[in-house]
Amino acid sequence: MDKNQLGVRYMQEGKWEEAAKAFNDAIAENPHDPIGFINFGNVLAAVHDSEKAEKFYQKAIALDENAAAAYYSLGNLYYSDEKFAEAKSLFETAMKKGLETADNFFMLGMALIQLEQIRFALPYLQRSVELNGEDAEARFQYGLCLAQQNLIDEAIVQFEKCLEKDPNHADAYYNLGVAWGFKEEPAKALELFTKALHVQPDHTLAGYAKKLMEQGG
Would the CATH topology of 1-83 be identical to that of 100-163? Predict the structure, then answer.
């Protein structure tokens, strides 16, 4: 097993110091390979050392301007720091460099949502769930986007698929309830608000909606 693979395994096990050592060895052995720098940056990002992580990603890009994974990782870093415009640009660059993964499409969609560009986020979230139908959160966010564009029937499908993958997704129950309420199905809506509260008793919006429904509002 090479040093990068070993480091990734350590990361998966949450052994950050061992992962950092493995990636440091990988960089020492192949100082012109961007992969080691990207991986080391990912360790630093995981332990919330954003400033150092950014330097490693930038070094990877300097070594290879087509290192798509470096743009994606740097985009994630900026997204976490709420630099959404910069993150969007980096996810777009990663895509142009060939990184057409479910995760990159999802994060590009999320960056656009944060920038209040819902209509532009839709196709990227759609592509994300096409590539990885098992991702409950991607289904949920895609459903939210559809609902915000008044595509209620399509949104219902995605919320239901989200709940198939994650039966404890309180926000999906709540938003599915809102969708059925919009379609003037109060009994279904009330049932779903109740399920949201069963999963998350302090879900404020579901609690308010349930109370409103029970009062005939």
Answer: yes
Amino acid in the structure at residue 23? F
Q: For domain 1-83, is the CATH number 1.25.40.10?
A: yes
Please answer whether residues 69 and 99 qualify as being in contact, where contact means their C-beta atoms are separated by less than 8 angstroms.
Answer: yes
The residue ranges of every structural domain in the chain are: 1-83, 100-163, 167-217
Take residue 162 and report the two structure tokens written for it.
């989200």
Cα 179 to Cα 46, 111, 160, 217, distances in angstroms: 37, 24, 11, 16
The CATH class for the domain spanning 100-163 reads mainly alpha
Burial 154-174 (b: 16+ CB within 10 A, else e): bbbebbebbbebbeebbbbbb
Q: How far is CA 87 from the centre of its chain?
A: 13
128: left (phi over 0), alpha (psi -120 to 50) or beta: alpha
pLDDT at 215: 83
Question: Which pLDDT score is estimated for 217?
Answer: 55
> 180-189 pLDDT, tens per residue?
999 999 999 9
